Amino acid sequence: DGGITQSPKYLFRKEGQNVTLSCEQNLNHDAMYWYRQDPGQGLRLIYYSQIVNDFQKGDIAEGYSVSREKKESFPLTVTSAQKNPTAFYLCASSTKRGGLIHEQFFGPGTRLTVL
Amino acid sequence: AQSVTQLDSQVPVFEEAPVELRCNYSSSVSVYLFWYVQYPNQGLQLLLKYLSGSTLVKGINGFEAEFNKSQTSFHLRKPSVHISDTAEYFCAVSSLLTGGGNKLTFGTGTQLKVEL
Fold this sequence. Notes:
The structure holds two protein chains of two kinds. Chain A contains no helices and eleven strands. Chain A has strands at residues 4-7, 10-13, 19-25, 31-38, 42-51, 54-57, 64-66, 76-78, 87-94, 105-106, 110-114. Chain A is globular and about 45 Å long. The model of chain A has no long low-confidence stretch (mean pLDDT 93). Chain B is an all-beta fold. Chain B has no helices and twelve strands. The interface between A and B is medium-sized, with 32 and 27 residues.
């Protein structure tokens, strides 16, 4: 079955540590996205990538970094510079076919807690 | 800039009753609208989308929404809810990105709680 996987499901981090969240898709989608979800605030875009080896900042990129070395993979690193990293992180992907608007497919999410 | 307002943070409703979840948007360009549902500790699942054409859009699980340009609204409705509809619902407006793909701007969500 095609879809998006995120790992781990739960992640605990000590203050001052960097941590990397995994996102893999087998939908053959060119575009991938990372969102952060906080209670009562909806989802906010952190980074997106439209093609391998290229990515762009979203609305709240400070304290985060990404890479896109393979089409299937778009890992997110939460660095120690992120002041309030405790949140639910969601990865998504979409096709870019025809330059039109397409549905974004979401992974199951990773819940990060900073201790 | 685009934005979405979901006026109700929580909506309680009895099983088999009708429900409407409200969504208003602001956009200076062509409007593309989505409703997603999220069950606890899970990702988002698409309910329905409006890209063009008929303003009444039907989605999965018996949900439908109507695009109203004059009122800048895209309210979600279901004529008879089930206990399994208890979840959080997000309205989003989309815009094309230079280079392909699209950016979703989400509302803050509405928690639908269906009671027996």
